[in-house]
Amino acid sequence: EVQLVESGGGLVQPGGSLRLSCAASGFTFGDYTISWFRQAPGKGRAGVSCIGSSDGSTHYADSVKGRFTISSDNAKNTVYLQMNSLKPEDTAVYYCAAGTVKRLCLYSYGMDYWGKGTLVTVSS
Questions:
Q1: Tell me: the pLDDT tens digits for 60-95?
Q2: Among the four 6, 16, 109, 119, which has the fewest Cβ within 10 Å?
């Protein structure tokens, strides 16, 4: 059974940091690109960042460049999203997803598997 399990969400003040984790199982981790998406209240799901499990290549949405860092521990089949300098507009449910087409890694339709999400709230 394929599983993507996110953790690490919570409430943080503006300017603070959080690290999200995505633990993957049930598929060949190295064959997939792992992505983070987010969905803010009343908005659609948007790609945030992605990493190729085989080559470690990374991509970021412009809105998070310089603030978020994605990384992967292939031995643990886990991907992390370090989020720094958080802003209220980063508030969203963050989803982990997996797909095989790297050029589509920031597009929802490019994903084969999804996690259930973890809520990040940035507020004072």
A1: 999 999 999 999 999 999 999 999 999 999 999 999
A2: 109
